[in-house]
Design a protein that fits this description.
The chain has 601 residues and is α+β, with helices and mostly antiparallel strands. Among the domains are: 217 residues, no CATH class; 36 residues. The protein has a 23-stranded mixed sheet that branches. Helix 10 runs antiparallel to helix 12. The chain is elongated, with a radius of gyration of 37 Å. The chain starts with 8 loop residues before the first helix and ends with a helix.
Length: 601
């Protein structure tokens, strides 16, 4: 029976010249798919072994080639380092700092262009997808700069004899499991990441791009994305979280959203540590011109700028003191922290935007916690570095900040830290604008047991030069109509009670109501010379020094404080004597009453 669709001549031509060749090509493709897999396996193994100078070997379980679709699928790929070769290279000072182990369940190559390969020796692939790769990297600092290698050829020069170019449009690493082992410190640090995705764009190796410095690993851009990363510090006292992280090599920008540092519960933390307790929440952190490749290879951290946007930093002063042991808290000074950073760090500028800062302290006498807050803090830090050569050129780290003290008065402050002084010398000066004085009660009531009932601060200025041993400088507080109430601890009811008589005495005879006292007089100014206790950390000493200048300004200098304390002590003594006499009278009265009752009997 004849085929009805071949009754016309043009149909026969189509069948003979189109469909038959297609069928032949399809048959050939089936045969090639079957026989090319072992050839491909041998080529991959040979290429990896040669390209890594025998350091790595590659293998896979199976491969499927679909030439008509331009699709290649490879299963269970493994990239395994040869430890014997690595140790030999290490003895020769040629071993890399990073050693990689990789396993991929499935590798898919889409839209492979075989015609470009056969006719023009150009390998073109539109897309490469790696599903569920498991990547382990171990790091140890074998050298701090590139080792001298015999082969200085570019990637294109190495392939040019067999290929004119290699071009891949997109490479995707989906659902990466990443483990990183860092042996560079005194203790092994292991990090494990999940919910991680990697992608690379426009991988191109040819004669035109072989010296293109804007490309990393011959790719125009490599993007790393990480979601919901959590971890714990080595001492177990802090948990850290990152909601989202993105690194782009094309823009050299690292972006972090939702950065949190959460300490252990208060009682657990202070039982295990003598350090202050920090809590950090940042909306976002951005590193610009971050040299990722240099950090990855040599732990050299370089960036032109860092932006910290929105959030909160809380510091709680450690209330515990070990008896008979005084630990010098000089390590809490920023310039000392920079000196002790176990990394080659260099950031030109740190830009702080709208961050709230709080310092809290527990007063043993009042059994209360006082807090000093600096709201909506913004400004710049310059020359954040631990690099010795950079410090030789400029040994000063400076900061210019604007904040709102107790969320009211505008505070402009400047810091200057010396990075080479053995006593951690630094200076700070600033000016606080107008605000109501009673807004300080949040700190003054629990910490000093003094409540400000009225008063207006016109200006507060300070200029302090300091180091780890002493803080010296000038403090000036201008104010009007200051009145206070003195408080005392009521342990029975767990509260603070007003000392009415002593408050009247203080307001009448001790406290100076205004500064200046009148228009015709110059304002009072205080010279501060505060010797820092060794156990006093950085933030606490800053606050205490300013407080030492504020007290004399309002009339609470040492002489007046002594007179006030003597008067309070005398008042308390007289009160105690009156209570004793009253108790004795009541006792005698009760005894007389008892004697009368006995006589009646």
């Amino acid at each position: 029976m004849k085929l009805r669709f071949l009754k016309h001549k043009w149909q026969k031509i189509v069948f003979n010249f189109v469909l038959i060749p297609v069928a032949i090509i399809f048959l050939i493709a089936i045969i090639l798919n079957h026989y090319l897999s072992p050839i491909l396996a041998n080529k991959v193994r040979e290429a990896v072994l040669t390209g890594s100078d025998s350091l790595y070997r590659a293998d896979f379980s199976d491969a499927e080639l679909h030439l008509l679709e331009g699709k290649v699928t490879i299963y269970n790929i493994s990239l395994i380092p040869d430890t014997a070769v690595f140790n030999r290279k290490k003895r020769q000072h040629l071993a890399p700092n990073n050693l990689i182990t990789l396993h991929v369940k499935r590798l898919i190559l889409l839209h492979v262009h075989p015609i470009s390969y056969y006719l023009g020796h150009k390998l073109k692939i539109n897309k490469i997808i790696l599903n569920q790769p498991e990547l382990n990297i171990s790091y140890q600092l074998n050298h701090t700069k590139d080792t001298i290698e015999k082969d200085h050829r570019t990637a294109w020069q190495k392939i040019s004899k067999s290929l004119h170019s290699i071009q891949v449009g997109h490479i995707y690493f989906n659902d990466v499991k990443f483990k990183y082992e860092d042996y560079s410190g005194h203790k092994l640090v292991i990090s494990e990441l999940k919910e991680m995705n990697l992608s690379a764009t426009d991988l191109l190796i040819d004669s035109a791009t072989q010296n293109d410095k804007s490309r990393l690993l011959n790719c125009k851009d490599i993007v790393t994305e990480l979601n919901n990363y959590t971890g714990k510090t080595t001492n177990g006292l802090y948990d850290y979280k990152i909601k989202y992280l993105k690194l782009s090599t094309q823009t050299s920008k690292l972006t972090i959203q939702g950065l949190q540092l959460e300490p252990a519960k208060t009682n657990i933390f202070f039982n295990k540590s003598q350090s202050d307790r920090f809590t950090l929440n940042l909306d976002s952190l951005k590193l610009n011109n971050f040299d990722f490749l240099r950090y990855h290879k040599y732990r050299v951290f370089r960036a032109t700028s860092m932006e910290l946007n929105g959030g909160m930093l809380r510091v709680f002063g450690n209330p515990n003191k070990q008896k008979g042991l005084v630990t010098d808290k000089i390590n809490t000074f920023p310039n000392v922290i920079l000196r002790k950073v176990n990394a080659d760090l260099g950031i030109d500028t740190v830009h702080l935007k709208r961050v709230n800062v709080e310092y809290s302290e527990f007063n043993v006498d009042s059994k209360k916690t006082g807090t000093v807050s600096f709201n909506n803090t913004s400004g710049y830090f310059y020359n954040i570095t631990s690099n010795e050569k950079a410090i030789e050129k400029n040994n000063l780290t400076t900061a210019k900040l604007t904040s709102y003290f107790m969320n009211r008065g505008r505070l402009d402050v400047q810091f200057m830290f010396n990075l080479t002084d053995k006593d951690a010398a630094f200076s700070y000066k600033g000016t606080l604008g107008p605000m109501s004085a009673n807004k300080i009660n949040q700190a003054s009531v629990p910490l000093a047991m003094v409540k400000i009932t009225s008063g207006d601060i016109k200006q507060f200025s300070f200029d302090i030069k300091a180091n780890s041993k002493a803080f010296k400088g000038n403090v000036t507080l201008l104010y009007n109509d200051l009145k206070i109430s003195l408080l005392k601890a009521d342990t029975a009811n767990n509260q603070l009670k007003k000392q009415a008589l002593m408050s009247i005495f203080a307001n009448l005879f001790v406290i100076k109501r205004n500064n200046p006292d009148d228009i015709s007089r110059a304002p009072r100014s205080t010279m501060v010379n505060y010797l820092r206790p060794k156990e006093s950390p950085f933030f606490k000493t800053l606050w205490r020094t300013l407080l030492e200048g504020i007290k004399p300004a309002v009339g609470l200098d040492k002489k007046n404080q002594k007179a006030t304390n003597d008067r309070i002590a005398e008042h308390n003594k007289n009160k105690q004597e009156r209570l004793i006499k009253k108790a004795e009278r009541q006792k005698r009265k009760a005894q007389r009453k008892l004697d009368k009752e006995l006589k009646k009997i």
